[in-house]
Each structure stands twice: as structure tokens, then as C-alpha cells.
Amino acid sequence: MAKAGGLPKPRTPRPNHIINIIYNIYKRSEEGGLRAGKSTLSDVGKPLLAVLCGERRDPPPMWMMRQAGRYLPEYRELRAQKGGFLDLVYDSDAAAEITLQPLKRFPDLDAAILFSDILIVPFAIGQNLTFVLGEGPRLTPPLIGAGLDDLQGFSGRLDPIYETVRKVKAKLAPNKTFIGFAGSPWTVATYMVAGQGSRDQAEARTLAYDDPVKFTAIIEHIESVTIEYLSAQLEAGADAVQLFDSWAGSLSPAQFEQWVVGPTARIVGKLKARHPSVPIIGFPKGAGGKLASYARETGVDAVGIDETVDPFWANKELPPDLPVQGNLDPLALRAGGAELDRAAATILDALRGRPHIFNLGHGILQDTPIAHVERLIALVKGAR
Q: Which of 253, 268, 306, 325 has the fewest CB atoms within 10 Å of its CB?
């Protein structure tokens, strides 16, 4: 469980979302003033941001995780010109263009999400980051053998990301929400400890049991850098941020409380102290039955649910005023046809009575046909 004092008070249901929005704006202005460009009632022209503030929109706003990526021919063309993945991330003009590509192709999407990677944080902490074709990311030295003292931080490695945010903000249509992001400490730590991704996160889980002092230090260092990283994204122009905890489902309930809920709550609390009116989305993939406690204890403004979660269950178990994001199976989108239609209709029906942002349960697959994305957008935007 996260330390007392680091957790915001549990979220409780509120009977009217409009009253909730007005109350929160008043409360935040009393706590330190509204910041220019952040979510207020004047932002009702941004449908997705309005839902993050507690409104229900019909049809729901939508975006897709990894919407800027390899399924788009224009992305593949630009990547062929520029080189590897990190070459794109660190070229702010290219990264801004990629961030905006999905909205140019699909104008009915309601948000842009920053084109970057969760492993930019360990790169800034001091690990070397490379992407091996066909195998994924590699971080050296792995912290299963090395220590934080062996790393030399380079905070300047984050500066090009902030420049990308500024360039996107300058070009983004005023009715679109701009989402920044970072990896949550547990998921980032799994890569830093093992030096690469793994299916069961055994190295990080083992280190957490065998040397909790060392593992706690790793988590706390990631927390610290992530708070600064997300805060700077918000200052550069992001309207909201999302914390991706892609490997949250690999933990026991007690570990989930310690390594997912606790660090997330501390990040949320410190970000809210600096940016009180900015919505924060939490996405603990694989959390399943632990979603309700995650929503109550972390203080996030919205929860993303993956494709394994029954949306009817989520609607019943999560606080009724809590915005929920999700949760179409990316494989259903790739399959298309009647399966796509049925799956989308089920999600829309299940979450119709609450603030809902339509999204996938995880990232869009690279071989997803463009026509299937167009069909999904038509299904969602045609829903009443």
C-alpha cells in the first residue's frame, strides 16, 4: 500500500457531472488559480477534454493508442526517409508531423497523442537505449546487475520531446485534445532491470522480493524524473497526460498496491499540486479486478481499461462519475467486419450512461487495414 499522505482521498460518486465540473473549477481556482490553456468550462469545444472533466458526450469522443504508427503508410514513408525509431523521436519536426498524421487522415478523431516512447525516461536517467529490429528495445546496463550509481543522468535528452509538444500545439486544431504521456514506474522499472521487455517480468519481480531497498530506490528515481517530465510536457502545451502501466497485470495484489498504486498516487498528487486542473488518465493494463481500488486510491481523473475487461462489469464496479477509456480489442479492429461491429456496439452500449472515451484495449496493430479504422470511426461517431 502506498504511504499515508501520498495518496489523494478516495474518489466518491457525485450525483451530477455538470455540478462536479463547476465545483472542481471553483475549487482549483481557490487553490491557486487556473492556468492558461488548461481545462476549464471554456474548453467545452474540446469534446475529449470535456469528458475527462466529467461530462458525458453523445457520441463519445475517441482516439486510439498507437494511432501514430506503422499501420499508416505516411508513417512508414517518413520512417524510411529518416532512419530508425529514435531518429524520428529526436527529430522534433518529424515527431510533430507523425503526431498529427492520424488526425489528417481521420479528421473525426478527437485527440492527438505525443509520438515518443516510455523508455525515453530511462534514457534520460542514464541507460543507453537502442531498438533492435525485430526484437524491440534494449537498455544497458541492466539494473539487475548494475546500480543507479552506475548511471549518469542526461536530462537534456528530454528537451527534444518538449520541442515536439510545442510544435504540435502550434498546429493542432483548437477542438482537439493534446495528450502527453509517460510510462508508470513499475512498467518502466521492468525494462530498466531486465534491459529489455519480457512476458512475465521475472527479473523485476525477483529483484523487488530479493532486494526491496534497491528496487524501491529505482521506483522512486523513476517517479521523480516522470513528475518533471510530465510537468514539462504540460507546460509545453499538452492538455492532459496518460500514465501507461503496460505490465501492471503481472503483479500479486500486495505488489500491485506497492508498485503500481503507490507510485501512481504519488505522481498524481505531485502533478496535481503543480497543475491542479489538468486531467490525468491511468492505464493499468491487466489490472482486472484491481481496477476499482486503483481508481479509488490513485486519484487519476480517468481510467483506461484493456480488452480483457468486461465493459458492463467496469460500468458497474467503477465510480459512476469516473470517465472510462476503452476498450476495443485491437484484434477485432484488425479483423473488421461483423466482429468489429458487434464489439464496438457492445462497448458503446455498456458505457453509454457514464463519461466515456472510446479507445482500444491496447495499441493498434501494424497490419490493421485503414478501411477498418474508418469503419470504427463511423460506428462510434454514428452512435446515438
A: 253
